[in-house]
């Protein structure tokens, strides 16, 4: 233990450490004993969090845990001091333990001036090769930096040799004389010393079994469960060089050759080019930037291999990533491509080694990104994306990282927001992880901040979609929010009710109370909009809600209704512009609702209102109800109630096209076709007479003629063809004048040529049809 002051040694012996320090450089490198020393002074530091191992990933885990505790406890012995210790830098361990002693004991060490070692003889002086094997030099991973340092070392070495050759006595054999340091006082003036008693120390020989047990304990490490990748720094290609190669591949494409010539002129391939790209990506050709990110996604596995195998490469990447996140704007054209690229890289790292990936992210990235997100909340999606990509294959890793987010932020409200966003990725329930989420979500219900309340209810709703039972038992705690005035809290309550209502439970009354209190035509349009989508699945199990649903659907703004009725379930989006609102499903209600129940309630609404004609919103809703062919025989009753409205709607230019679409859906539904066509025949003949007699709108007439032709020719159904044939034949007989002056004559002639027959069995009255007698 040469080099450690005596008072420090005595202090360490008094701490009763698990293992004695024989070689400070080796024994302190993994951080285990440092953690044990601090645990004597700070009970918050638990030894079960440390592993006494010499593997790089275990050492890194120990030191990163200490770093977090140092930050939390305001201990000024951070990374810049302990990193050289971890990498076995000369004298780093001794200097660090001195600093630890001074900090913990509040004592200043009295350090004697260092003993100057005699200059070695010429034959024992270090060679250039020995100097280049120095551990500090070998720690440098960047090739350019390493080459520059090597150049400096060799220059200095050559200069020393040149200077030595100017010394004439350099080849003389040195003589080293040990001088005894005597006192200047005379012997008779020396102070009388007290008698010193020297005792013989009795040393008990260590039992063989004890020696064996200690040897086992010193070598004991936990078995690797996931990680099989050894950190081999000499074989790892620099990460920033790999990224530079991906950018060069795009620069070599014909479309982007000018980018290389103009924006990256005189920039060398490698680290310099990569840093330059991220520095200027907001000011250069955005198509080029997005192409580079897309190529980075394709090569993410190669980059991930370098990052997982080398902590130094991961640190360089993390520094670049952090500086980019700090300055990137979320409205930048390349923002989504950037987020996609870092997600792909994180996913690939986790796929290679989930344990190492999580530790590296925790050590190099998590805390600074949390701090940035606290300052710039709009960048929360980046944090959530990175946390998920570093733990997407392991719920235990996710829980570990979420806890670290809380440690780094120290803010319950921030954690609840992170949890509500992270839950969007979950597809299955994990008891340990999601019970942790539930605990903080329930705390959020009591927050005075309405935004935090909304995030808390959002988290409960997302967990309810994974496991309804665990949330149903906590549902009474949500009732306190029924009086909330914040629109998003009420909207999230509707979402929660929509998720839980189909699962019949003892809380049905409370769920119905939530719906009635928040879902009504007089509510905010944002609340109605969210309720229309998230309550749609409940209409099958709770058909009594259909009447309320129709009233709200008709009341909402036309542009919102159009989006809600879209049958494409789009990705989630924001209801309002802002940084603090949740994302919601905004469309796809017809794909989830009880179509017959909605149509029946619409028919009832029209009848109760005593309407004479259909409005556009009514046709729009019917169309959405029929986007899948109806199979329930009860649909015939709905058609019977609405058929007059539909055929009359053919005369209205505003709804003509929509009415035709609804009629087609009814008439061509295989399960209903026979009954629908039977009921439609007299009504359609009558409406054609009114249409041709009263309407001069060419667009309406054209659409009607196309409707008739499409029914006959478009579905290749004999039943539909017979129906159209009967409609035209009966119309020609009943209204010959209207028939002859319309385009129905041409349509009929085409049908006759197709059927190879005549309209009438007897002699036709219309001169236009006489030429088609057989």
Automatic annotation (TrEMBL):
Q: Which GO terms describe its molecular function?
A: microtubule binding
Q: Which GO terms are recorded in the biological process aspect for this UniProt protein? A: regulation of cytoskeleton organization
Record's Gene3D superfamilies? Calponin-like domain
* Residues annotated as domain Calponin-homology (CH): 2-108
What is one term from the GO cellular component aspect held by the record?
axoneme
Lineage: superkingdom: Eukaryota
* Cited SUPFAM superfamilies: ARM repeat (SSF48371)
What is this protein identified as? Calponin-homology (CH) domain-containing protein
């Amino acid at each position: 233990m040469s080099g450690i002051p005596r008072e420090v040694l005595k202090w360490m012996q008094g701490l009763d450490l698990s293992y004695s320090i024989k070689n400070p450089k080796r024994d302190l490198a993994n951080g285990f004993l440092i953690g044990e020393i601090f645990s004597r002074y700070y009970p918050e530091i638990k030894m079960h969090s440390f592993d006494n191992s010499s593997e790089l990933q275990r050492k890194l885990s120990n030191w990163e845990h200490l770093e977090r505790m140092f930050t939390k406890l305001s201990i000024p012995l951070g990374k810049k001091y302990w990193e050289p210790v971890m990498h076995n830098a000369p004298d780093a361990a001794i200097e660090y333990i001195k600093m630890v002693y001074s900090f913990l004991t509040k004592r200043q060490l009295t350090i004697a001036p260092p003993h100057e070692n005699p200059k070695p003889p010429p034959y024992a002086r270090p060679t250039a090769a020995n100097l280049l094997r120095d551990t500090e030099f070998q720690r440098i991973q960047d090739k350019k930096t390493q080459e520059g340092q090597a150049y400096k070392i060799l220059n200095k070495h050559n200069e020393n040799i040149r200077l030595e050759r100017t010394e004439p006595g350099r080849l003389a054999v040195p003589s080293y004389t040990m001088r005894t340091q005597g006192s200047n006082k005379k012997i008779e003036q020396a102070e009388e010393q007290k008698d010193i008693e020297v005792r013989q120390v009795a040393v008990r020989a260590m039992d063989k079994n004890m020696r064996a047990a200690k040897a086992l304990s010193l070598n004991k490490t936990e078995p690797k469960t996931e990680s099989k990748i050894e950190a081999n720094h000499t074989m790892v290609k620099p990460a920033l060089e790999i990224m530079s190669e991906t950018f060069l591949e795009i620069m070599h494409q014909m479309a982007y050759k000018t980018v290389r010539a103009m924006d990256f002129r005189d920039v060398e391939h490698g680290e310099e080019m990569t840093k330059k790209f991220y520095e200027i990506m907001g000011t250069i050709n955005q198509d080029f930037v997005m192409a580079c990110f897309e190529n980075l996604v394709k090569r993410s596995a190669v980059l991930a291999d370098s990052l997982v195998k080398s902590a130094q490469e991961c640190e360089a990447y993390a520094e670049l990533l952090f500086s980019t996140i700090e300055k990137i704007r979320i409205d930048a054209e390349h923002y989504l491509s950037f987020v996609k690229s870092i997600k792909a890289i994180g996913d690939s790292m986790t796929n290679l080694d989930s344990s190492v990936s999580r530790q590296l992210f925790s050590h190099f990235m998590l805390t600074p990104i949390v701090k940035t997100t606290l300052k710039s909340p709009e960048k929360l999606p980046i944090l959530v994306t990175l946390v998920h990509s570093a733990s997407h294959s392991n719920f235990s890793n996710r829980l570990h990282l979420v806890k670290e987010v809380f440690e780094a932020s120290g803010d319950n409200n921030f954690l609840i927001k992170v949890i509500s966003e992270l839950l969007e990725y979950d597809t299955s329930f994990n008891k340990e992880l999601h019970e942790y989420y539930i605990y903080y979500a329930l705390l959020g219900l009591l927050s005075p901040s309405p935004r935090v309340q909304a995030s808390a209810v959002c988290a409960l709703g997302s967990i309810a979609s994974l496991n309804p039972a665990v949330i149903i038992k906590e549902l009474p705690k949500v009732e306190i929010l029924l009086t909330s005035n914040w629109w998003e809290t009420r909207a999230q309550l509707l979402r929660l009710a929509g998720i839980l209502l189909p699962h019949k439970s003892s809380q049905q009354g409370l769920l119905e109370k939530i719906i009635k209190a928040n879902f009504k035509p007089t509510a905010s349009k944002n609340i109605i909009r969210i309720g229309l989508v998230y309550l749609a699945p409940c209409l099958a199990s709770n058909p009594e809600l259909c009447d309320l649903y129709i009233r709200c659907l008709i009341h909402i703004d036309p542009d919102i209704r159009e989006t809600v009725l879209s049958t494409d379930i789009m990705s989630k989006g924001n209801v309002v512009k802002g940084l603090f609102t949740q994302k919601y499903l905004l469309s796809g209600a017809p794909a989830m609702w009880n179509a017959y129940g909605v149509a029946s309630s619409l028919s009832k609404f029209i009848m109760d209102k005593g309407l004479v004609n259909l409005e556009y919103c009514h046709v729009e809703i019917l169309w959405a109800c029929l986007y899948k062919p109806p199979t329930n025989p009860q649909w015939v009753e709905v058609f019977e109630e609405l058929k007059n409205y539909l055929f009359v709607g053919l005369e209205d230019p505003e709804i003509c096209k929509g009415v035709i679409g609804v009629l087609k859906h009814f008439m061509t539904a295989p399960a209903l076709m026979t009954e629908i066509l039977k009921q439609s025949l007299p009504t359609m003949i009558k409406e054609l007479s009114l249409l041709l007699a009263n309407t001069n709108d060419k667009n309406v007439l054209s659409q009607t003629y196309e409707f008739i032709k499409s029914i006959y020719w478009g579905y290749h159904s004999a039943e539909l063809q017979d129906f159209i044939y009967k409609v035209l034949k009966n119309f020609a007989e009943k209204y010959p004048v209207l028939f002859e002056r319309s385009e129905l004559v041409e349509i009929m002639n085409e049908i006759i040529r197709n059927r190879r027959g005549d309209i009438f069995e007897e002699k036709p009255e219309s001169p236009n049809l006489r030429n088609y007698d057989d």
